[in-house]
Amino acid sequence: MARYSTFSIFRNALSGQRNWQRAWRAAEAKPAYDVVIVGGGGHGLATAFYLAENHGIRNVAVLEKGYVGGGNVGRNTTVIRSNYLLDGNTQFYEFSMKLWEGMSQALNFNVMFSQRGQLVTAHSADQLDSFSHRANIMRLNGIDADILDRDDVRQLTPYLDFSDTARFPIHGAIFQGRAGTARHDAVAWGYARAADGHGVDIIQNCEVTGFVRDGEKIVGVETTKGRIGAGRVGLAVAGHTSVLGQKAGLELPIESHVLQAFVTEPLKPLVDHVVAYGADHFYVSQSDKGGLVFGGNLDGYNSYAQRGNLGVVREVAEAAIALMPSISRIRLLRHWGGVMDMTPDASPIICPTPIEGLYLNGGWCYGGFKATPASGWCFAHTIATGKPHPLIAAFGLDRFRTGHTLDEAGAGPSAWLQ
Amino acid sequence: MLRIECPCCGPRDHDEFRYGGDASLVRPAHDDPVPEAWYRYVYVRKNPVGPHREFWQHVTGCRQWLVVERDTRTHLIASVSFARKSPA
Amino acid sequence: MNSRNKRLPSGGRIDRARPVDFTFDGKKLCGFHGDTLASALLANDVALVGRSFKYHRPRGIFSAGPEEPNALVTLGTGGRREPNLPATTLELADGMAAESQNRWPSLGFDIQSVNGLFAPFLSAGFYYKTFMGPTRRAWMFYEHFIRRAAGLGRAGVDADPDQYEVRHAFCDVAVIGGGPAGLSAARAAATAGARVALIEQDFLFGGQLLSKRTDGGAAAWLATIEAELRGFENVTMMARTTAFGVYDGGVLGLVGQQGNVDPDRAGSPRQVFTMLRACSIVFAAGAIERPLVFPDNDRPGVMLASAARAYLNRFAVLPGKRVVVAITNDSAWRAAFDLAVAGAEVTVADLRPVPASYLLAEAARLGVSVRTGARIARIRGAHRVNAVTLAGPKTQADIACDLVCVSGGWSPTVHLTSHLGVRPIYRGDIDGFIPGALPASQFVAGSIAGQYATAEAVEAGHRAGVEAASFCGKSKPARAPAKLDLRDTVSTPFRDPGSAGRGKAFVDFQMDVTVADIALAHREGYESVEHLKRYTTLGMGTDQGKTSNFSALAAMAALCDATIPETGVTAFRPPYTPVAIGALAGRAVGHHFKPFRRTPMHDWHQANGAEMLEVGLWMRPWFYRNSGRDVNEAYVAEMRMVREAAGLMDISTLGKIDVQGPDAAIFLDRVYANGFAKLPVGRARYGVMLRDDGIVFDDGTTTRLSENSFFMTTSTAKAADVLSRLEFLLDTAWPELRVAVTSVSDEWAAMSIAGPKSRDLLSAALPGIDVSNEALPHMSLLESAWQGKSLRILRLSYSGERAYEVYVGASAGERLWTHLLAAGEPLGLKPYGVEALGALRVEKGHVAGPEIDGRTTLDDLGLGRMAGKRTGFVGDVLRRRPAFQAADRHRLVGLECVEEGQRLRGGAILFKLGEAIQGHGHGRITSVTYSPTLGKYIGLGLFAGDLAIEGTEVLAAYPMKKEQVRARIVSPVFLDPEGKRLRG
């Protein structure tokens, strides 16, 4: 794998860009692999990379039914943060943050991880107190966190509504300076290229249609490109986990729901941070290309259609203007939907399964992107050793039976309310 | 916007309704003491790709809970009926 | 009019009697009513209009519609500043001040055009391969510069002063597109008896007919059918309205512009967002002409042939005097002919070796020179084209020109038809994509379906209109419209294999994506069209690649040696053209966004010094300003008043539910964790409901009004959820229970009188009602009337004092409130707010929102004894799960500050004394107050059950204030644990 660098760009510029190699090979499936990862999204590709990088397991295939990165890794609003409250979540997402901080160098692919800082506005003293609770937990776990007062928020984000007529006046905010955004597609491509560099086969347009069993044990997968044997199979198909899980015989506490995302026309720099509205469902950042990227709440009914409804578009627009009045004049360029695995506690499921040979990584709800590196790292460990990585000990499937749920919002077991 | 044909109020935008999830689940009897039955009812979901029977309540209309049969791929609604089959 | 005016002396659809003054980059110019900004700029001979995204190349006007990639301008200043508007879609208005964008210091001299020199290094995706060192945070340095270079126009930061409107509309047949097919469809559907909405993005109906000569048959046909349509009462003609998205349920998103030119409409909303619910839809959205790909094909002066024809015939602008028309199909010949007739010197370069003989004959008649098998090899001119080199199979020639018209064929405008997930399908005979298999309620007609000939479009439109109306059950017989045969066939375009050359050959003009970029993406394995789009940014501009999409995938297909269908198309997403976010929000801005709720006593609070606090959309008195200078002083004073005399509190926000029926008691027994079946008539009981998963859902008080009738109150926050849950259980789980539940929240005003003097005051205020301890003991009900309104007095206490909740018909709420205050004044009665209420309940150890946080169980909150050994209630089984029984489960505790001069804070993390202050600790403080009764800070918390021994000291850490304070674990009931104060 030829290294990317300023020098390589210079050299290739002089040779008319003709000598660049494929970012990853167009691999043909072998009859069998030590590990087959189902799902060529961020989590699947990261898992394959860390299987090779951390565990020396290189006889690995990643099977993707469409094109690499075509699922939620390429549809999300790219926010990366580690401001979690509950024991189990806090440490996992901070580990992920640390991996993000070295990702471009580790992959030799610029994922444009931009630690521009994220703030969530507070609109009452009580809300700011509850943010302080979160900030306290973050600090006690070695994570950066600040509580801002109204003037601090105005300094950082003068374009928010500080007028006398603001519907929900800004009282303050919680701020994480290390939070930010990354170029989502680059994460998928970067992991694909780096995994490929370790010998992992990335096989696109290869849909898994079933599982091959030897007794109770899963020993391979049936695909649209034929049967592929596998020592172990890892599922990383968030959004469609139920579909494949059921083919394997798993009963899962997951519902698929649509979350919409929005982007405006490209503008000169305006929003320098990630800003989330504490009074309603709205958050926004500005991509390096200039579009304001924003999102809101789930559409709220089971769906596998990658599109949202007009009512939510309107709700998000209303919330956007309530927080940021000048956005009224800015024009929406595109909106789309992603299919989320929603779990009853809005926390993910990564674990070995009751079925021998099958490992599960799903249930990411609307928070999977920021988890990508840690998820891959821990899932690779789990597959390689057969035991859950300590950082994902809380993310087992059993927790719903035992009551050890991790419900950050306290919203209860109706997945669509999470 | 989904358009739900409320059997009481006629076709309405879905944001007049409250979603209630999978209607194919059978709630255990109120005094069913078996944890597994409640676990399955509260947590386990078929989450089908395709036809899905689901509850919706017409909160800003007649307040009836309805069973809507809707395709999760196309969002097309095949049928709507009252969840309550007979008056108490 | 200066010498560079390109306006023709006559013709067009402009009103020469109404000149319109406008400016471009500060320069005063003049156009006419009926112009677009683009046509007016062309008329004034303005060729250079914008700069491109990446290389800052000079760009001119390329199209005459919303597909415009180049001519983007900014309008307005301050809160009205609006960037990235295509000049081709802006209806010229008096005083319009347009600015070019993405250039500095000026459009003519743009420093960043130096990027062009670095172009070899700035290939597609170059940024993925560099900017990674020297440190891990290096990107933060580079990003700063990249961000500044990127982006198009600059947005304003002020609030938008204009108004928008949201409209809900319904129709039988929605027809999208007011060209020949759409007009014909609308007419057919209307004749059939359907309610029709005809939606046209332009300010004139007619579509491509507007580009025909105004003295021909097309114009006459258009005038006739438009008049006919305006005569129908069941047709709504929506010009200036874009259908931007198709959504589930037959819902169309439309955004309509206010006409800029009609002074009568001043004061009306700037834009109207319509949610149109249509029974059926006819898509007659037309087609967009494709450019050709050749070196430097982006120079100002290069224009789509159809656009040149529109400027000539509709706007009476001759965009060039010496014109080269480079084409691959028949349609653009007509532009060449019209230009020649208008006096231009025209050369047609048709890539096809043998164009149709009738075209050659017409060319000869009009003096148009023709070069067959020829393509443009080179363009000259920096800020505007001044010559081209045409390369034929054998010859090469330089031709001086001031306009180059291009046409690579047409792409049907399939965007809307694919918003619901229907993939377009490829049709070889037109070398383009048409809509895929649509649902039964959707129809297509005209160019969108590849029916390019006007005669065919009119007929197809009629058929589609009839079918669409019939789908809605409207099928009165419709007679066909007048025929309109313009003999304007579009031949199968000859696919241009592309040409090599030194200059950049652009595929996506706005995003500066070239043929070389596509080749690079292919070389690096980004072959899927989605990868291509994401890697090169192709189609990601404000035009969403309307002109680039097909050329790009044709190029990728060629590189992959694949067919066009194998290569596929990227998904089209709404909106079709960009939509102002303000339009989508309509009037739900300012205080119309999530309007707050007011209690019946709201106006009194406002008029009497209440500082209001919003709690879940309700406005509630936080504290009263005459109680103290600030909240901290006031709430303590209000607490003292309640503990020592009496206070009055507005509790109208509580949820109130009427529960009736023979099985009401059984029902309540199942929904509450504690029993209600044995509650005597006239008595009240505090109850806690669980969720199915065993977590506490809500608490409140339910009173038995009669054998079969109960009055339930819920928390303010959960009122709607509780009612809905009760209805769910009755409708779906226990239909056999004969119970009805109804919200009566808004029917009752409610106020609480609390304090040792509350009874005296009530007797004084309500003579004739016996409120003695015997008549109305703790947890009991009295029903009566006051001034003809129902009155309920419930003796309940939240504060721990003797207290009454008084409910009265909502319209009498303020009267009773002021009556009680007046009667109580001699006893020292004053109102108190929610801050004091919250503090009073902490002193009594009552849990509320901070403790009932969606993660706590009955046992966690110290309420396990309420359920006792009961079973069969909601949440009973799962509340027994192992996690909830763990010894270190966090349970409710009381906490008191033991350090002089310190205070407790909610959100502090609790640790054992002496252990390392890190991690998650063993719990937290949930609620705190200063207790005037105890003279210190006290609080409630959730703390590990196995460590929660009363008397133990713990450390409360609050890193955000760098505080660590010692606190003692005590009983959560700080005051009157026996409840003497509230019973007597």
TrEMBL record, chain A:
It catalyses: sarcosine + O2 + H2O = formaldehyde + glycine + H2O2; sarcosine + (6S)-5,6,7,8-tetrahydrofolate + O2 = (6R)-5,10-methylene-5,6,7,8-tetrahydrofolate + glycine + H2O2. The keyword Ribosomal protein does not apply. One of its GO terms (cellular component) is cytoplasm. GO terms for biological process: tetrahydrofolate metabolic process. Its EC number is 1.5.3.24. The keyword Acyltransferase does not apply. Pfam families: DAO. The lineage of its organism: Bacteria, Pseudomonadati, Pseudomonadota, Alphaproteobacteria, Hyphomicrobiales. NCBIfam families: soxB. This is Sarcosine oxidase subunit beta. Its cofactor is FMN; FAD. InterPro entries: FAD-dep_OxRdtase, FAD/NAD-bd_sf, Rhodanese-like_dom, SoxB. PROSITE patterns: RHODANESE_3 (PS50206). Residues 35-79 form the Rhodanese domain. Belongs to the SoxB family. It comes from Allomesorhizobium camelthorni. Keywords: Cytoplasm, FAD, Flavoprotein, FMN, Nucleotide-binding, Oxidoreductase. It is found in: Cytoplasm. GO terms for molecular function: nucleotide binding; sarcosine oxidase activity.
Automatic annotation (TrEMBL), chain B:
One of its GO terms (biological process) is tetrahydrofolate metabolic process. The lineage of its organism: Bacteria, Pseudomonadati, Pseudomonadota, Alphaproteobacteria, Hyphomicrobiales. Pfam families: SoxD. One of its GO terms (molecular function) is sarcosine oxidase activity. Gene3D superfamilies: Folate-binding superfamily (3.30.2270.10). This is Sarcosine oxidase subunit delta. It comes from the Bacteria.
Automatic annotation (TrEMBL), chain C:
The keyword Oxidoreductase applies. SUPFAM superfamilies: Aminomethyltransferase beta-barrel domain (SSF101790), FAD/NAD(P)-binding domain (SSF51905), Folate-binding domain (SSF103025). It comes from the Bacteria. GO terms for cellular component: cytosol. Residues 891-976 form the Aminomethyltransferase C-terminal domain. Residues 601-867 form the GCVT N-terminal domain. InterPro entries: 2Fe-2S-bd_N (IPR042204), BFD-like_2Fe2S-bd_dom_sf (IPR041854), FAD/NAD-bd_sf (IPR036188), FAD/NAD-binding_dom (IPR023753), GcvT/YgfZ/DmdA (IPR028896), GcvT/YgfZ_C (IPR029043), GcvT_C (IPR013977), GCVT_N (IPR006222). GO terms for biological process: tetrahydrofolate metabolic process. One of its GO terms (molecular function) is sarcosine oxidase activity. Keywords: Oxidoreductase. The keyword Oxidoreductase applies. Residues 503-587 form the SoxA A3 domain. Residues 172-423 form the FAD/NAD(P)-binding domain. Belongs to the GcvT family. PANTHER family: AMINOMETHYLTRANSFERASE, AMINOMETHYLTRANSFERASE, MITOCHONDRIAL. This is Sarcosine oxidase subunit alpha family protein. It comes from Allomesorhizobium camelthorni. The lineage of its organism: Bacteria, Pseudomonadati, Pseudomonadota, Alphaproteobacteria, Hyphomicrobiales.
